[in-house]
Structure prediction request, 118 residues.
Amino acid sequence: MAGELSFFELGVKDAGRGGVFYEALFGWGTEPSPSGEGFVFRTPNVPGGIHGDDEGASPYLFFRVDDIDAAAARVVELGGSVSDEDVEGDEDSIARFGRFKLCSDDQGSPFGLHQPPA
Prediction:
């Protein structure tokens, strides 16, 4: 359907290292990209890719998680970081949209975590 995320691409400094990070964080599989540059992610829903030599590249995407606090702790455990910036808003906003955390992987490339409302 139009408007749904249908593919994502992450730019990092080192594509192999980035693949290891996201595999460990989300349990995604990786395979070499058909182009020979970077990797393709095997995810449970939306296909994605990762390429190197592009440290800190956009787009900035939020990935759904069941437990945002546990996922944020896992990001840090894997060498990434979680911003202290409040992107969640007030209780009404959290009830309507869920919880969000801005993060960076272990190479400084940004991404977000999203826990939808109950």
About this structure: The longest strand covers residues 99-104.
